[in-house]
Amino acid sequence: MSANSWTIAAARDALRKGEISATDLTMACLTAIDAGDALGAFVHKTPEIALDQARAADARLRAGDAPSMCGIPLGIKDLFATRGVPSQAASNILGGFKPEYESTVTTKLFDAGAVMLGKLNMDEFAMGSSNETSCYGNAVNPWKVDGRKLTPGGSSGGSAAAVAGDLCLAATGTDTGGSIRQPAAFTGIVGIKPTYGRVSRWGIVAFASSLDQAGPMTKTVRDAAIFLQAMAGHDPKDSTSADLPVPDFEAALTGDIRGKKIGLPREYRMDGMPAEIDKLWADGAAMLKDAGAEIVDISLPHTKYALPAYYVIAPAEASSNLARYDGVRYGHRAKLAQGDGITEMYEKTRAEGFGKEVQRRVMIGTYVLSAGFYDAYYNRARKVRALIKRDFELAFAAGVDAILTPATPSAAFGLGEMSSADPIEMYLNDVFTVTVNLAGLPGISVPVGLDKQGLPLGLQLIGRPWEEGDLLNHAYVLERAAGFVAKPAKWW
Amino acid sequence: MSIDIDTARRVAKLARIRVEEADLPALAGELSGILTFMEQLNEVDVTGVEPMTSVTPMRLKRRKDEVTDGNIQSQILKNAPDAREGFFAVPKVVE
């Protein structure tokens, strides 16, 4: 098995024993990346940086100073600012932008010795569920069951494709409404969105600041624990970052969930849900029950209002955050006609630089925040959000330790198949994940089975705030019971 | 609530995104569809509910108001589409 397909845990152990060098491990990934262009995952390759970092990691390993992530080759979502390396949020409006600074997450990863292989494709400004809104073109799912090319999901579609296709050991993602968990489910990998405030947002291009959270996308639950450990922690540069100690997540993986109470929310049993998803959910519950957990029926009554509330709040925050792209300080500026003033510059720059979905969301956000509508839409959505959060608080107060739900309403769909659909049909992809962002809770997607076509399906576990360790342990039990080992057949 | 063409034009203007006249009817239709979807929120009784402002009740940290960097003019201007003599350059702002 070539080294690019290893887990972080296996690579860490082999590096420490000297069975492989970080340089050789990195070379294996760089080779896989060059052979994997058909996946559209890596949009800016950084082999020189990777090899420099790998050599430095080898020196640290030789010196015996090697944190868990030392020498581990990673892909970084294009949403993260990386010094001197294009960081465009997959948007033409940030064309040519090379930050003069490094995001907190990548700084922490590099301090821990991790290796950056390059930047990964995504939906433009993380707005999308299929990676089809990217200025770089589509990322493609390594899973394929017929002639069609499938979406890897979105917005972290490049991250998911890169990890599932073994182009890297793991990748960073970000999740505003499901953008880590949905692509993880579509590609048969693990993705965790931590509690809001667990990971610093500094240096990550902002979409909806009260919902955005970065997290790892990995091949196993153990890798998610190791990777999250290195990303998490208080950052004075992000005022919403929590000043709480970060526990040892890997040590939390005891595999023992006896006596734990798992809630199945009845409102997640949607009309028209495919029988396969329903069965997967029941199978997952049975696996946790066999491991000694108690399964209880719970109610989260405001679930059906989560998507409409999200599609008020997220565009409102986006319209404000994206106001900074005006063609003055960075990125694209439209060519102006004789006599054009500053307003024409703004309007032409933003019309050229933003794609259709981003324009649509900025305008929706502008509308719901405009005079006369603020209370009717934005404030009402924030009140509904408070009720959604309270639903979860009541469930946890009643003794529930974790909540089990499907991760997505279907398996991966074909690229282009939703292009004529109403935008709302695409938004429905987030139906099971978006509540978690609204409530600020940690949620993880775990691959559990294949559908009848042979495509991966995932289940989501939702945990108590700041209890990622306990959540990861539940996910670990589910992962072991499900025994999901299928890999996509290589066609690229 | 449906959005007419005048409202679509006004929203585009407020968002500082140029939309051609010919594209306004389609935009108005799309925005109306999304707003209709949001109307479901009117079914919820929100009497006495405080709008959610933060995910976890915690006091925002305060820091000392002091200068911590400086002398990085060239770094700040490095990505500008048009920078001249140490400034960001833009088209005429006032007549």
From TrEMBL, chain A:
GO terms for molecular function: ATP binding; glutaminyl-tRNA synthase (glutamine-hydrolyzing) activity; transferase activity. It catalyses: L-glutamyl-tRNA(Gln) + L-glutamine + ATP + H2O = L-glutaminyl-tRNA(Gln) + L-glutamate + ADP + phosphate + H(+). The keyword Hydrolase does not apply. InterPro entries: Amidase, Amidase_CS, Amidase_dom, AS_sf, GatA. Its EC number is 6.3.5.7. The gene is gatA. Keywords: ATP-binding, Ligase, Nucleotide-binding, Protein biosynthesis, Transferase. GO terms for biological process: translation. Heterotrimer of A, B and C subunits. GO terms for cellular component: glutamyl-tRNA(Gln) amidotransferase complex. Residues 25-472 form the Amidase domain. Belongs to the amidase family. GatA subfamily. It holds the Pfam family Amidase. The active site is at K77, S155, S179. This is Glutamyl-tRNA(Gln) amidotransferase subunit A. It comes from Paragemmobacter kunshanensis. Allows the formation of correctly charged Gln-tRNA(Gln) through the transamidation of misacylated Glu-tRNA(Gln) in organisms which lack glutaminyl-tRNA synthetase. The reaction takes place in the presence of glutamine and ATP through an activated gamma-phospho-Glu-tRNA(Gln).
Automatic annotation (TrEMBL), chain B:
It is an enzyme of class 6 (ligase). Belongs to the GatC family. Keywords: ATP-binding, Ligase, Nucleotide-binding, Protein biosynthesis, Transferase. InterPro entries: Asp/Glu-ADT_sf_sub_c (IPR036113), GatC (IPR003837). It catalyses: L-glutamyl-tRNA(Gln) + L-glutamine + ATP + H2O = L-glutaminyl-tRNA(Gln) + L-glutamate + ADP + phosphate + H(+); L-aspartyl-tRNA(Asn) + L-glutamine + ATP + H2O = L-asparaginyl-tRNA(Asn) + L-glutamate + ADP + phosphate + 2 H(+). SUPFAM superfamilies: Glu-tRNAGln amidotransferase C subunit. Heterotrimer of A, B and C subunits. This is Aspartyl/glutamyl-tRNA(Asn/Gln) amidotransferase subunit C. The gene is gatC.
